[in-house]
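Quick one, tokens below. Sequence please?
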């Protein structure tokens, strides 16, 4: 659209050359300038200002049209908008030709919360309120005031985000509405505008990150005892959207940690308005610096959504500092660093804004001169701005460790940036590494410099989804590499750099992530999750410590009954109180074997086709000789849709025997054996629980998910599969690393409280890992009417399968375009997979038939034995390749779908089932635990003989673990706390809520990943 200005040139959006004005018009315009401007022009033209002023009296000015006046008015309004100070006079004039003022009456909505329009609004006259809706009501609350010169809607314009609040006119209001189309015209004319406009948004982001770093610094600076003590203080409070959590200028009387929801940090601006400078989410800390300094609040914090906050009052905070006096000094350093950092940031921003204002003033002056003399934009302006960079920094990034084959592993598609390091760092260039890890970063010297001090910054991309499923990406710095200093050469090389990024532990034969003793894991838990764990663990740890101290102080351990009573009431204790004897009966035994922690594979009895068989093999492992752990062979029959035990065979060692493959004595018991039958079921329960914890829980969900997590995070960067898998694979390496010492190792609970030794536990883990593969895997099918686990598992498998199919349908182009990353993922997965393992039971070839060809064999939830194993370095591996090429074949695409189904199922539902039932199957120490002792009167002694039960110390530890695992849940699919799960998956799961409920299963318990 072009406007014809009366008495002047045509203003073209592309800045084309305009006709020269008559001399009389030029002189008239000259007369409007200030004496200083006239003198400067005279010097440029080689004429005296006096002569020009005299000549300017030759005629009156031309009349102006209404259109010209309107554009002048809009242009004047645009000059008052700080966001647009980067525009040249010509660009501002062009924008003025494209936008028009829009008026709103008192109380009218300028924008409405939740709307998806993409217009930017510039407030030119009047005032307005920012309001947010209060969940569960028709009311809203004002959270900010806007005045002339303010703007809103920039995130909608640039990123397309839905409106997070409404803006309501407070009296008569006039705004300028800038559409995305009009804005794009400016971008096409000068692409650099986008970068310059982004500075304002970058300032907000910098302050947001500064606020986040300060909050995290508080917790990260504390030792574990200090952090635990701090998090135990205070209380939990809920705030409605729009509620004021802290007010700028008020006295600092409390601080808070966001548990759930979102809040914003706002600072007052000149003119009575306020500006958002940060968004706070789960785990973010606020208000602590005012408690330290004693100064008034420097910003306000308001709830954007319904917010739950852990609040610590000033008195509690001071008590905490009194208990840990060394903390104050550390926190004061953090406070000073934060204030100094923010001061430097603000100083840099002010300096940049000052330079920008100076450039804008010079541009406006040049624009006036050009308009005065009818000159257009220089013909070579766009060419000069588009000139390519002439300097290049190159190099190559590699993983720290080579592949098992000995070859280097390049770090492909990593986001990298080149910076000049100084008092205020200057961005120079950005790029991605190529498939071979190489990179080239082209840049120019910053203004006013003849050399640069280089630094390479490596970033990891993270994602979130909006409620509408729109993807939002953010980069997080993970490593910096110092480069040469005082670089003047046009080409410089960083050389090859090995980066310790998601490395496999070279000392572990299993696919485990390398985390050093000093920490440095590739991920971290959200602070909200850590806070939740402290809240859950605190009362449990109090009980456990009381029991241990009681024995130390009195020389007498508390009884098992007292220990049990000090913990929450378990499921079996409650059920036994309501139905005495039921939990020790055959019906309950069969139900728990079918649907409890140990739910898994059931085979037909080869000798008795009407029976079912569950078998646990333990005698081939070294044992401690103190705890009893025989081979357990259980037979069941179906009656009225339920499974009842009919025979239990135990292959028992003698007490004190430790070697593997020891001689055993066979004991076969049936319901007719009375008390010995009760004891046999107790031994079988303990065997099943240990198998469930090691095989089903630790290995099949934790370690199995970890091997997919490592391969995925090492390789998926541009492939959309990252958005499908990452939400369900994150944090598993952290919890697995904790379990290495907490449960395993020489001092781990499983090592101390069960029959297995440290070496035999590792042997068992390695063997179970060798039986796990994604190829042709599916959940077990129901074998009777009450097989609830199988029905729920298959229902969830259906949901996951539908979600995976939809995701592939939508993102197939991106998946196949970046299939190279799938190939690398597959390569890592197979090369680091555990060696293939088949137990003697499955190696059986009686009658010349392999197991899968025999009637008793159940293929579900087992490795497909018909598939040849892939060999790496002469060793057959458990996990099959997904693909062996960089080209996406249709069969390989189907393979990748199956991998996604398998990985998501195990990291979410399978882990939930194994973890959430701890208090049911392991919440009563005399009923069930991980290790029975031989006892004073033999293993068939009744429950009342506590010489067979765990020691008091092991008993209280067992209950502590059981309830901690049950209650310590953060990360549920339907809650989507981190907003990284696509809403469509949640929607699909919600659509089947009724079907799950009909099976007595609550989908709100399905964990989104394995992190406990």
């Amino acid at each position: 659209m072009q406007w014809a200005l009366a008495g002047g040139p045509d203003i073209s959006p592309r800045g084309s050359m305009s006709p020269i004005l008559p001399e009389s018009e030029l002189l008239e315009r000259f007369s409007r300038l200030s004496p200083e401007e006239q003198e400067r022009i005279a010097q440029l033209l080689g004429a005296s200002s006096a002569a020009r002023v005299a000549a300017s009296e030759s005629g009156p000015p031309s009349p102006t049209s209404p259109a010209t006046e309107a554009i002048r008015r809009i242009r004047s309004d645009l000059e008052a908008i700080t966001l647009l100070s980067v525009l040249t006079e010509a660009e501002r004039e062009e924008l003025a030709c494209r936008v028009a003022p829009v008026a709103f009456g008192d109380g009218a909505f300028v924008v409405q919360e939740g709307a998806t329009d993409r217009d930017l609004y510039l407030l030119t006259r009047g005032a307005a309120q920012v309001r947010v809706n209060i969940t569960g009501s028709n009311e809203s609350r004002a959270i900010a005031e806007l005045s002339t010169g303010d703007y809103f809607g920039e995130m909608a314009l640039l990123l397309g985000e839905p409106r997070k609040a409404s803006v309501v006119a407070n009296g008569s209001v006039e705004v300028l509405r800038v559409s995305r189309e009009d804005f794009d015209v400016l971008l096409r004319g000068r692409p650099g505008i986008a970068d310059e406009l982004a500075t304002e948004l970058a300032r907000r982001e910098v302050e947001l990150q500064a606020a986040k770093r300060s909050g995290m610094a508080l917790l990260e600076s504390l030792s574990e005892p200090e952090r635990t003590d701090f998090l135990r203080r205070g209380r939990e409070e809920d705030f409605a959207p729009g509620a004021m959590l802290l007010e700028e200028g008020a006295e600092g009387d409390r601080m808070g940690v966001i548990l759930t929801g979102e809040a914003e940090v706002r600072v007052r601006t000149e003119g009575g308005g306020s500006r958002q400078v940060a968004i706070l989410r789960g785990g973010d800390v606020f208000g602590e610096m005012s408690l330290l300094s004693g100064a008034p609040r420097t910003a306000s914090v308001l709830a954007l959504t319904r917010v739950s906050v852990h609040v610590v009052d000033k008195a509690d905070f001071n008590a905490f500092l009194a208990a840990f006096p060394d903390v104050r000094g550390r926190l004061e350093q953090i406070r000073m660093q934060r204030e100094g950092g923010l001061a430097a940031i603000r100083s840099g921003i002010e300096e940049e804004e000052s330079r920008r204002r100076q450039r804008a003033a010079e541009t406006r002056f040049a624009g006036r001169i050009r308009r005065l003399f009818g000159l257009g934009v220089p013909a070579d302006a766009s060419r000069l701005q588009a000139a390519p960079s002439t300097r290049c920094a190159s190099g190559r990034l590699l993983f720290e460790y080579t592949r098992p084959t000995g070859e280097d592993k390049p770090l492909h598609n990593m986001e990298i940036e080149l910076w000049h390091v100084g008092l205020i760092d200057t961005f120079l260039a950005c790029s991605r590494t190529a498939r071979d890890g190489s990179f080239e970063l082209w840049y120019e010297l910053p203004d006013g410099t003849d050399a640069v001090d280089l630094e390479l910054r490596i970033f990891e991309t993270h994602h979130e989804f909006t409620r509408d499923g729109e993807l939002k990406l953010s980069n997080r710095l993970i490593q910096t590499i110092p480069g040469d200093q005082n670089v003047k050469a046009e080409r410089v090389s960083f050389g090859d750099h090995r980066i310790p990024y998601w490395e496999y532990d070279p000392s572990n034969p299993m696919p485990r992530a390398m985390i050093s003793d000093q920490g440095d894991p590739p991920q971290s838990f959200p602070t909200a999750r850590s806070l939740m764990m402290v809240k859950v663990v605190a009362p449990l740890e109090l009980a456990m410590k009381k029991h241990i101290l009681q024995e130390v102080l009195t020389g007498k351990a508390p009884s098992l009954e007292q220990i049990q009573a000090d913990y929450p009431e378990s499921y079996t204790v409650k059920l036994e109180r309501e139905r005495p004897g039921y939990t020790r009966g055959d019906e309950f035994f069969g139900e728990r074997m079918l649907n409890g922690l140990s739910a898994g594979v059931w085979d037909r009895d080869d000798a008795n086709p009407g029976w079912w068989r569950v078998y646990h093999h333990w005698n081939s492992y070294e044992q401690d000789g103190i705890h009893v752990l025989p081979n357990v062979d259980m037979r069941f029959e179906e009656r009225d849709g339920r499974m009842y035990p009919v025979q239990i065979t135990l292959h028992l060692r003698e007490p004190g025997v430790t070697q593997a493959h020891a001689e055993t004595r066979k004991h076969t018991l049936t319901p007719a054996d009375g008390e010995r039958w009760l004891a046999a079921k107790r031994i079988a329960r303990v065997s099943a629980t240990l198998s469930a914890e090691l095989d089903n829980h630790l290995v099949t969900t934790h370690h199995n998910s970890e091997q997919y997590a490592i391969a995925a995070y090492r390789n998926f960067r541009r492939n959309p599969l990252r958005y499908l898998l990452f939400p369900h694979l994150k944090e598993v390496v952290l919890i697995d690393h904790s379990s290495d010492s907490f449960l395993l190792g020489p001092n781990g609970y499983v090592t101390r409280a069960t029959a297995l030794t440290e070496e035999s536990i590792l042997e068992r883990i390695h063997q179970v890992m060798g039986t796990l593969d994604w190829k042709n895997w599916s959940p077990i099918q129901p074998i009777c009417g009450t097989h609830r686990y199988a029905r729920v598992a298959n229902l969830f498998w259906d949901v996951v399968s539908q979600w995976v199919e939809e995701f592939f349908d939508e993102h197939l182009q991106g998946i196949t375009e970046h299939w190279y990353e799938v190939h690398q993922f597959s390569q890592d997965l197979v090369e680091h997979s555990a060696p293939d393992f088949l137990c003697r039971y499955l190696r059986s070839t009686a009658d010349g038939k392999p197991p899968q060809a025999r009637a008793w064999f159940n293929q579900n939830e087992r490795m497909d034995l018909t598939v040849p194993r892939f060999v790496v370095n002469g060793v057959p591996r458990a996990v099959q390749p997904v693909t062996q090429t960089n080209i996406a074949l249709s069969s390989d695409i189907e393979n990748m779908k199956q991998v996604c189904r398998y990985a998501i199922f195990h990291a979410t539902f399978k882990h939930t089932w194994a973890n959430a039932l701890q208090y049911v199957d392991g919440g009563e120490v005399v009923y069930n635990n991980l290790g029975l002792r031989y006892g004073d009167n033999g293993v068939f002694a009744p429950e009342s003989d506590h010489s067979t039960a765990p020691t008091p110390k092991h008993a209280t530890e067992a209950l502590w673990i059981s309830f901690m695992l049950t209650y310590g849940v953060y990360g549920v699919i339907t809650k989507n706390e981190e907003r990284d799960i696509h809403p469509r998956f949640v929607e699909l799961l919600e659509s089947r809520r009724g079907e799950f409920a009909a099976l007595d299963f609550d989908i709100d318990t399905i964990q989104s990943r394995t992190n406990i």
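Residues 326-372 form the longest helix (47 residues). The chain has three domains: 198-346, 388-499, 529-1005.
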